[in-house]
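From: lab user (bench 3)
To: helpdesk
Subject: output format question, protein + flavin-adenine dinucleotide

Hello, I'm new to running complex predictions and I'm not sure whether the block I got back is the full result or only part of it. Here's what I submitted:
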Amino acid sequence: MLLVRNIKLKVKEDEKLLKRKLGKKLGTAVDSFTIYKKSLDARKEPVYVYQLLVETDNEERYLSADVSIYKKTDLHARYKKRDCTCIVAGYGPAGIFSAYRLAEAGFRVLVFEKGKRIAEREKDVQRFFERGILDESSNVQFGEGGAGTFSDAKLTTRIRDKFIEYILDIFIEHGADEKIRYENHAHIGTDEIRRIIERITDSLIARGVEFHFAEEMKEIIIDDNRKICGIKTDQGEYECDHLLLGIGHSAYTTVQMLKEKGVHIEKKDIAIGFRVEHPQSLIDERQTGSLIGEANEYFLRYKGEKGVYSFCMCPGGMVIPAMSEKDTIVTNGMSYAARDSGRANSAILIQIPKEEFTDGYDYLHELERKAYAYSGSYKAPAQNIDDFINGSLNELKYPSTYHLGTILYDFNDFFTEKDLVIIKDALRDFDRKIPGFIDEGIMVGPETRSSCPIRISRNVEYVSVNTSGLYPMGEGAGYGGGIMSCALDGIRIANAIIFSHEQIQK
Ligand SMILES: Cc1cc2nc3c(=O)[nH]c(=O)nc-3n(C[C@H](O)[C@H](O)[C@H](O)COP(=O)(O)OP(=O)(O)OC[C@H]3O[C@@H](n4cnc5c(N)ncnc54)[C@H](O)[C@@H]3O)c2cc1C
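Helpdesk reply: Thanks, we reran it on our side. This is the complete output you should expect:
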């Protein structure tokens, strides 16, 4: 197969032209091809630059500076029936992809997920969004697919890893658009990702993975040598050789249990803030002028005494209530595949170093409860950004997309004096980068679940430093943030287990 680079199209040109351009570059007619990579070059007149894959005979004769031979590496695990039971606790991206790989390699895999399957979970989330009735086990954070199921399902990551292609292949095999393989900043959308995850679960069931949905791991069982030998759930007791812990960043009670069991846990820096909302048209005009006829994104960074940055920006999306505990308020963002709400939203976060709190979970819960106490309901505190800067409180310029309504609140009461100065400087800086950011924006919050306040320490073999057989993984263990990085971490853990078995058997 040939990889042909540097084929360009103007942004408004039809991709049908690619075949002709490819043929011209190779000097021969081409029947079919696939897009391997597509990126935007906006240095002069904006163009899309493509890398294309094409099957041909006599590959050598076409080789040039822009044409090379491409060989896809087979990353699938070698199947071998293994007498070893792995329990995966938590079925978010880390849990899904570790279970997938271990099953592929022939391990016996049991998955325990405290939340429900997506069909049931959707009803619980809908009831919460419409009527404010929260199920603490089945919500935006908990259930089949984990926290990213009700999200934008952006697949961006800064990590370079050959297993990214493996993960994207699995998404595509289960119904995702091929585009996710080659588009920069690919996203799936909440509507699509839910169906894809359901299909992945069904594939795993067909492979013999044993699923226990709506069953919470309550306790880990450790022997006298501090080796994991099983778990207790709210429904029974199960033995295992390895326990993979993919519990996400909202599993407060499970973390308390791990602490009581003496598992080594460290404190980690966190970030807090709010969501900002703007008309999507403002972002499109200021960013790239709607070059691609799609909702544009932005990434903003401000380096003051502390870092302030935009996070999890959702073009054409909506702000959602993302709490998992009653009497708290937590915001986040999601969008559908079409990204057509007409509204842009993003978290704006300030870093809080670990020296500023004793217990990160307590610190975050206090803020979440403070917001609820002010509101007296699940209506989220909200303010115009210019009012926040000026310390005033006026009716919102437009209603927020947040489902459960908002209540006017002065966010000057939310942050410390020192952090307020930094955040306001950051917002002024963002307004210089995107004019109108202050005057046309509203803020809704608080946003407190962007990163986990702890790390469950693990050694170079990815095992807990003081509990053998225990593999902490993903966001809740402090080793990932986002769908791709947590999926990759799950695969890393599965590979470590496969490797250790192969070493033992040698
Ligand atoms: C609204 C929202 C939007 C997001 N949007 C994006 C996005 O667009 N792109 C992106 O990359 N990231 C996004 N994220 C972040 C991303 O979803 C997370 O980083 C990722 O899901 C973390 O993966 P994980 O597998 O570590 O844990 P999680 O996905 O949090 O999954 C953990 C699972 O463990 C279960 N669990 C917890 N405790 C127990 C227990 N004791 N027993 C059994 N099960 C348990 C939970 O129910 C949960 O389902 C978003 C998050 C949210 C909340």
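A quick orientation on your result: Residues 269-447 form one domain. Let us know if anything else is unclear.
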